[in-house]
Amino acid sequence: MQHFKTLSSYLEYLDLPRSEHPMLSVFNSKEDGHLPCPRQSSPPITNDCYSISFKKYVEGNLNYGRTKYDFTNGALIFIAPRQVLQWDSSVVFEQKGFSINFHEDFLKGTELAEQIKKYGFFSYSVNEALHLSPKEEKQIASIVKNIEIEYQNNQDAFSKEIIISQLDTLLKYANRFYERQFLNRKEISNNLLEQFNRHLTEYLESGQLQEKGIPSIEQIADKMSFSQRYLSDTLKKETGKTTTEHLHLHLIDKAKNILLQPNKSISEVAYELGFEYPPYFSRLFKKKEGISPTEYREKYKLN
C-alpha cells in the first residue's frame, strides 16, 4: 500500500495543484467556480494529513477505512492521518464546495494538536459523514472563507496562528453539528442498541465466553460494521450508558442466573462468564448490585 509522508507528494498523487504552503492546502470554489478534480481512481493509499472537505454531491464507490461513503447532499467529511482511502472511476464529484488538507505536523506545538484527536468524527465510519443544514453550511462556509483569505495572503509571523485559530473554530462548530445529528437520530440509535444487544446475546449464548473470554467492544463494533468510537458515542447519547456499561449489564444478568446454581463456586461462575480473575468479577458484581456474589446467592437462593 502506498503511503505519502508529505502534503506535496499526496497532492501530486491526486493530480491537484501545488499548495501555497508546504503543510497546508485550501481549495474553495467560488459562486460559479469549481474545485480542481482529483484523479479518477486509486487503489488503497494512506498519508500523514488531515482532510476536511465539503461536497455537494457524490456518487460511486468511495472507500474510507472499511466502509463506503453513504451520503447525499451537503456532507462534511473528515479524514485522519493514516486512514485507508480508496475510490474507483464510478465516483462522480460535483466540483463545488471546499477541501482543506494539512499535515499533522502543521499543528505541532499548539493546543489543537491534542484537541483534534478528541473529536470522534475523525474516527467514525465514513457512512456517518456530517450532514449540514443550509444554515450550518453558511456558518462553515464563512469560516472556510476566512481560512482561504489568510492562506492566500503573504505569510507572516501571525499567519499560522490565525489559520489554526480558524481551524479550531471550524472543528468546534462541526462538533456542535454532530451533537445535533446524534439527537435527531433516535430511531437509528434505538436500532443500533437492538443490534448491539442482539450480537452480544448471541455471543453470550454461544458458549464462547469460556473459550474466548469476554468480547471487546471493538470486536462487537467490528461485527456490526461500525467503528468503536461511533458505536460508543451513539449509545451514550441515546441511553446515557457506555458500551462497556451495557456489556457489564449483560454479564451481571447472566451471572445472576448462574449464581443460583448451588453446585458452582463463585470462581467457577467467574470463569464461566469469561473473567480471567474471579476477584475482578466479584468487585464488578458488588459495584453494580451493591452486594457480593455470595451475598446475592444467599439472599436469592432457591429453596
From TrEMBL:
Keyword DNA-binding recorded: yes
Domain HTH araC/xylS-type residue range list: 198-299
Domain of life of the source: Bacteria
Organism: Polaribacter marinaquae
Keyword terms, alphabetized: DNA-binding, Transcription, Transcription regulation
Keyword Oxidoreductase: no
InterPro entries in alphabetical order: Homeodomain-like_sf (IPR009057), HTH_AraC (IPR018060), Tscrpt_reg_AraC-type_HTH (IPR020449)
Protein name: Helix-turn-helix transcriptional regulator
PANTHER family: ARAC-FAMILY TRANSCRIPTIONAL REGULATOR (PTHR43280), TRANSCRIPTIONAL REGULATORY PROTEIN (PTHR43280:SF32)
